[in-house]
Write a structure and sequence with these properties.
Chain A folds into two domains: 373 residues, 3-Layer(aba) Sandwich (Alkaline Phosphatase, subunit A); 58 residues. The two termini of chain A are 41 Å apart. Chain A contains eleven helices and 19 strands. Helices cover 31% and strands 17% of the residues of chain A. An eight-stranded mixed beta sheet of chain A has the order 8-7-9-1-10-14-6-15, sandwiched between helices. A three-stranded antiparallel beta sheet of chain A has the order 2-3-12, with no helix packed on it. In chain A, strands 4-5 form a two-stranded antiparallel ribbon. With 834 residues, chain B is α+β, with helices and mostly antiparallel strands. Chain B has five domains: 108 residues, no CATH class; 45 residues, no CATH class; 172 residues, no CATH class; 146 residues, no CATH class; 166 residues, no CATH class. In chain B, the strands form seven sheets. In chain B, strands 3, 5, 6, 8, 9 and 10 form a six-stranded antiparallel beta sheet that branches. Chain B has a two-stranded antiparallel ribbon with strand order 1-12. Chain B has a two-stranded antiparallel sheet with strand order 2-11. In chain B, a hairpin with a 7-residue loop joins β13 and β14. In chain B, α16 crosses α17. Chain B is globular, with a radius of gyration of 35 Å. Classes of the chains: A alpha/beta (450), B alpha+beta (834).
Amino acid sequence: MSTGLMGIGMADLLADTRPSGYRPKAKRVLQVFCPGAASHLDLWDYKPELIKHHGQPLPGEEEMVSFQGKNGNLMRSPWDFQRRGQCGKHLSSLLPQLGEFADEMAFVHSMHSKSNTHGPGCLFMNTGFVQEGFPSAGSWMSYALGRENDNLPTYVAIPDVRGEPPNGKANWNSGFLPAQHQGVSINAANPIRNLKLPVGISLEKEEASRDFLRMLNRKHLAERAGDSELAARMASYELAARMQLAAPEVSDLGRESRSTHRAYGTDDSNALKAAYARNCLLARRFLEHGVRYVTLYCGSRASGVDGLMNWDAHKTLKSDYERHAPILDQPTAALLRDMKQRGLLDDTLVLWTTEFGRMPTHQAGTVGRDHNPDAFTTWMLGAGVKGGVSYGATDPFGRRAVQDKATVWDFYATVLHLLGLDHESVSFYHNGIDRRLTDVHGHVIDPILA
Amino acid sequence: MNLWFALLFSLAVAAPFAKGEDETWWAFRPLVDDEIPKASGWAKTPIDSYIEHDLKQRQLGPNPAASRRDFIRRVTYDLLGMPPSADQVAAFEAEESINAEERLMDRLLASPHFGEQWGRHWLDVIRFGESRGFEVNPLIDNAWPFRDYIVRSFNDDKPYDQLVREHLAGDVIGNGDPEIEVGTGFLVAGPDDLVGNQDPLAQAQIRANTLDDIVGATSSAFLGLTVSCARCHDHKFDPIEQADYYRMQATFAGVHHGERVLATKDELAVYERERAPILKEQQHWQTQLTEEEERLLASVELPKSFPLPAPSHYITEDRFDPVKLKLVRLTIHNAEQNASSPAGSKVDEIEVWTAGEELRNVAREAKVTASSKIAADNPAAYGPQWVNDGKFGQHWITDSNAVLTLTWDDPVLVNRVLLSSDRPRNLSPTHGERRFIGDYQLDVSTDGVRWTTVTRENARPPISDAHARQRRLRLAMNPEAAKTLRGIRSSLARVRVRLRAIPAPRTAWAGVFSEPAKPAYLMKRGDPAQRGPEIAPASLTTLQSTSARYELPLQAPEAERRRALSEWLVQADNPLTPRVLANRLWYYHFGTGIVDTPSDFGNMGGRPSHPELLDFLAKRLHDYQWYMKPMHRLILTSAVYQQSSARREEASAVDAQARLLWRFPPRRLRGEEVRDTLLTVANQLDKRQGGPGFRLYQYLRDNVATYVPLERPGAETYRRAVYHQNARAAPVDVLSDFDAPDCALVTPRRVTTTTPLQALTLMNHGFLLDQAALFAQVLSGRTPTEQVHQAFSQAFQRKPEEDELRAAIQLLKIHGGEAFCRALLNANELIYLD
C-alpha cells in the first residue's frame, strides 16, 4: 500500500538510474511560468526580417486561420531589441532587467507545442501530456528526488495573485503519482491550507489532545506489532506538527531586510507587481529551505478580456505587455540576483516557460497576435547550464521552429539530466504502461549543458 | 503482423502463466473450469480450496476466523462503506445461530447503501466527473442522474451484461425509458475540451482526443485492455494493432458530449399540459405590453437631425460652457449591443478637460465611483479605476446599474468630456472588446444634490432601431403610463415565476448522437492530418482466436455500432469481460486483485496470483447470468474472507503483502469512507439518497471556472461522499487528502498514501472542528465516565480500557469535550480496518 513517509519510491532507486560517478549540479528547480502564451517574438526571439517585412503578407500563409480565426499581415514587435551581455544576444527592451542575465541564460528557441489552446497547452508544458490527469514536472521531481527538508512540502506552486493559471490546479496535480507528490499551492496572500492552529485552541489544549491521540494510537499499534502503516500515520502527525512551526517561519517575509524588499519591488505602487514581488521573495525562501521544486506563476487565467490577466495578447499587444512586462521584469531579476548572491544558483536550476508562442502576423482587425503552437521560446539558467547560448531557431519571421526543433519532452529530459536523472528511468506504472514525464520521447539538449 | 507483434508473442509464451502449446496471451484464452483442488476442513467454499492449495505449496496456512467484532466491521464497511452501529456489533457478537454471518451479509446486500459503496467503486473505474475539465471546466449540473442510475443498478443487482449494454447503447435499447437511456452517461463521463478553436486541424485533434477518452474508458473498464496505447502505432507491449484502436474509435464516431431530455412520454405530455394555460396568459400580457408601448411611442417622435453625431468608439466628445464643478456623472441607458440594458458596456477612458488657457485632463485627479461586472476571484478586473488611469486598453465593464461619478475635492473649471472604448483604434468593428455605450446622459454638479444636464440623450442620434424605440419610450414616459407598464411587467414577471415553477422535463448528461459525415480512418502516428486507410467499426482482432468477431459496413448507423460492440463485449465466448469483472469484485473485497492491475490484463499489467481461481470466478459470473450479488455472497462466505487479519511473523517473512491470503489484508479506509465515518461517529450523517449533489467548494465562473475549497462546509454537505459533485482539478479537503482521485483519468485502483497534509486537515480544517464540536454536543449532559463510554461506543463500537478511560476523563475535565472528540476523530483505530 503506502510507501510510508520518507522513502517515497524512486528516491531509493536513484543510485541505479544515475550514471556512475555523475554528480548532478542541480538539486532543486525554480520554474517561472508566464501563462497565456508569452510572445517569443516580443520578448526573446529577435527577428530582423519581421521588421523589414512589417505590413506585408506572410509568404505561403496569406490565408492562415489560427485559434481565433483569420490573420492579417506581418507585424513587427512594438519594442526594440538590443544587444545584451558579452554574448551580445538581442533581447527585447520590454524586459531590461532580465536582459542583464543574457550571459547566463540558455535559450531554446525551437520549442513547439501539441496544442494551440491554453488549457491543454499549459498541461503539455507542465506534464508532457495534453490530456488531464498526468503528474506535473514538479510532482515527478518530488517522486524522483524525495525530500530535502522533512518539515516542508517537496513541491510548491505559487499562483499569481490574480488567480490560477488556465486549467487551474491541474497544473500542479500529482496525477497517478501518490498524493504526497502533489504541488502544495501557496502564495504570499494565502498560506498552506489547514496549517494554522485553529482559533480557540491553545497550545496546551492542542498538546493534551495530541497526547491522548498518541496513547490511543500506541495501544492500537501494540496489538498489531509490525504494521508499518500505522506507525507511518503516527509519524505523519509529528511531521505535521513540525511543519506547523517551520512553514510560517519560511513564509514570513517580515524577516527580510527593507533593502531586499525594495530590490524585489514588494512596495511598488503597482499592486500587481508588488504582489508578484512578494511571491518571488517567497519562492527564494522556499528554495533556500530545501523545497525541491517551486513553480512561480506570473499571470493567471483567461478572463472576459483577452490579455487582461495573463500574456494572451490577442488584440492589443502593446498595451497588454506594457502592463505585464513590468510586473515580471524587476521582481524576477531581483530574485535571480538575490539567488546568485547567496550562491543558490550553484545548485538551483531556473526555468522560464510558457505554453506556446504567438503569431508573427497580427490578428485580423486587431493589433494583437493569435496563438502559435509551432514556435515558442523557453530558457534555463543556473546549476549545470551553459550561459549565453541559444539552441534551435525559428524561421526568419518566427512563425515556426525549424532548426534543431525541441519538444517539451526534450526540455524535461534536459532538466532531469541536470538533476542527475535519466528521463527514461524515472517512471511509474499506471494502467498499462510505465509512464514518464517525457512520454515515449525526449532527448537531452546537450549544447546547453555547461 | 509486425515484428513487435511476433516478438511479443514469443514473450507471451515465455511468460509464467503460458501453458502448453497455446501461444495466446493468458488473458485472451478461453475460460477454463479446472478441477477444484481437494479441500480440507477449513474450506467453506471452492474459493478456499484454491487459496489453501497455493498456501500449502509455500508451506503456509491460513489464519483462524476473525472475531465477531472485526468481522461485522469489515463486512459492513466492505458492503456499505460505513461503520456498523454499536448496537449492531453487540447484537452480532451475542448472536448464537450458526448462520449469523450469512444473515448479516444478506441484510447488508439488501441495504440501499450497498449501491452507494459499490456504485462509487464503479464511478472510479469509468472516470465519472461532474465538470467538463480543461481550461473552461464548468460544472455539469445534470450528471447526477447517471450517478443515481449507477447506485440504483448496483442496489437492484442489475446483471452486468445489461449494464454494459446500457452504458454503450442505452438510447438504442431503452425504448424511451429514461432509466435505461441514462446509461449512456458512461460515454460522456470523461472530460472534454470545449474551448472554441478556429483552426480546423486543431479542432480535429481535439475531437480525436475526446474520442480517445471514450475508447480508453471503454476498453479499460470492460476488457482490462489499454487500447489507447495503440493510438499512434501498434501496441508496444500487447498484441493490439493500431487498426483495432481505430475500429473502436469508429464505433464512437457519432458520440458527442452533451445533455439529452430523458423524460417519459407521459412526463412530457404533463409538462405541456401544465404550461399551456400559463403560456396563453403570458401571450395576453405580452400583447398588452406591446399595445401600451405602441400607444406611448405614438406620442413621441425623435427629431430628424441631432446636434451631435452618434457616439464613436474612438472618441466621443461632449462640449459645454465652462462650468465650475465638483462632480461629473455619466448615466448609461443602454449598451451598444443591447438596447434594453446597459450591462456589458465598455469604456476604456474618460477625460475631463479644463477650460481656459492651460489645458489639462483633470479626470486623472478625480475619485471615480461606479459598480461594475465582478470577477469573484479578482474583483478589480473590470472596475471603474481603468477609466482614469491615463491608459487605454483596459476597460471598465458595466453591470446593469451603469452610473459612474467622478468627484473632485476642489472645484474644477471644465468644458469638455471625452469618452471612448477603443481610443487607439486597435480593434475592428466586430470585436466584442470594444462594445461601447448606446444612449447616455451627462450631468454635472457642485454639491451632488442639484445636477445640471450638459448632454441629453437626445443630443445624439440613436444607433439602431431598437435603441430608437427604447429612447422614445423613455422620453414619452409619464407617471400614469409608467404605472400601467409596471403593472403589466409585474404580471409578466409573475407568469414567468409560475412557468419556472413547472419542472422542466428531466435532462441528463448522457451524450448526444449524430451520424458521422464520413467514415473513420486510421491516423498515422495518431495525427488526424496523416490519413491512413478507412476503418470500419468492428471487434478487436486481438481476441478473434477465442471470440467470434464482427465487422460492420463503413457507413453503418452509429447506434448500430455501439450496440454491436456492447453485444460483443458480453457474448459468451469473450473471456476478458468476465475475468476483468471477477477480478474487480475480488479487488474491492480483498484490497488487491488476483490481477493487481484491475484495468490492465496486458503484458504491462500484473499476472494473476491465482489464475485458476480467477477462471473459476469468471465462470461463475456466467453461471449466475451476470448477477453480481451471488458472487459477493460466494466471496463473503469463504473462509479466506472470514479469517482474521492478525499478522504472523513466519508468514510475513514469506509473503509480506499477503498476496497468498494467509491473513485477511487489513486496510485503511478510502477517502469517502473516512468522511462518511467522521459524520457517522459524530452522529451527523444525513443519509438522504440521490438527487443533485452537494459541493465542498465555492464555484466561481468568469469565462473559466475556479474552485475554492470551503473552509467551513455547512450541514447541507453532511451527506455521503458519493453525492459530492466531484469537479475535475478541484481538490477538496478530506476527500482529496485521502486519495479520492481527480476524475480526469480512469482510476481502476486507488493508491493509499500517508501524508502530513492529511494530519493537518484532520486536526485543523473547519469540517473536522465542527464534527468534534457536534460530537461533543451529542455526548454532553452525561458524567465524564458516561461520555467516554458513549464516545468509544460511537467511534469504535467497543468499551474503553482502563487506561484509556482514565486519560480520556482527564482530557475531558481539563480541556473539554471538543478536545477529546478532536483526538478521537484522528485515531488510527477509526480509519484502519482489521
